[in-house]
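Section 5.1 Outputs to date
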Amino acid sequence: MTDISTETRSVVVEREVPHPPEKIWRALTTPHLIAEWLMKNDFAPVMGHRFQLSGDWGAADCKVTALDPDRTLAYTWDAMGLKSVVTWTLTPTATGTHLRVEQAGFPQDNERAYRGATFGWQNFVGKLADVLARLD
């Protein structure tokens, strides 16, 4: 029998976007652009950099844990008692980029946070697409 208290779930959003990885990377790593589609922040694309994302719901304390320009970005996301990891993966395609974001670490018994993140990431990725459409 598995111990349900130690198993976690992930929220995953995947989209095909008609933009090159370099353009998406810029939107994922430039503070004023991140503020347009995600939240206010003091992000820097530096390994180990600690930053905060803040919205009307509160704030997430974060730390950059993986950085491979134009390919992978990961950071911890500690908010409201939940410790999780957000990983962005950019894969070039013939027509642009396959964009994948995963937030991993939702306890089985925290349905509210899981549902909130499921809605939240769909919304954030939609806003990201709008920002990308306006970028040169």
